[in-house]
Amino acid sequence: MSVIRRNRIAIGLAAGLAVVLGLGVWSATGSGTNSKPVAQTETDLGVLGDYGDVGQPPVLQEPAQAPETPVQQQAPETPAAQPAAQPPAAAPVSSLKLVGKPVDKMGLVVQDGDGRTMYRFDKDVPKPEGKSNCNGTCATTWPPLLSDTVPQVEGIDSKLVSLITRADGKKQVAIDGWALYAYSQDPKPGAWKGQGVGGTWFVIQPDGKRNVECLPPGVTAPAA
Known about the structure:
Blueprint: H1 3-28, H2 42-50, E1 97-103, E2 107-112, E3 119-121, H3 137-141, E4 152-154, E5 161-165, E6 171-175, E7 178-179, E8 201-203
Parallel strand pairs: 1-4
Antiparallel strand pairs: 1-2, 3-8, 5-6, 6-7
């Protein structure tokens, strides 16, 4: 092939390439009727790249990732409120009352709230905890002074007053360990017909000692 012919072919190819490029630009600009550029497709980029018009292949950007939501720290748990401490229950107030007082002829005696004279039994055991030996029919004649609470006192040292437990489990009031009894044969409040009965029953004084005043005939005062 001659040089002239080769030159003509090269010129023809260059002219054809120029036409193709011109058509591509004309298509990209919308033939000049649209001022907004038209996004190139992957095909367009591929065609242009084949002819070396694009220096580097297009870089595809990865989709933007949403920013990580910071983990919220949980507020420290508030400890449950503790119930307010309840004050200790007050001891029940007894409706029973004991009164130590002097009376005519007898001197110092102990009476309950109804004015009944109180007695002690010499066969009881006062110490160390106090024990009653009057049970059964004895307790019918000599009713024990029962109470679930220590009675209120007047004219008596409250430190001497206590409760002892009887054989049946009931609580009986005592002074200085000596259990207290009434006498079923006393006709009225303030009477003391039980004084000296059997040489073992005596009116009790506010200090727990036996009262040996007004002893019936034939009864001798026991040794203190």
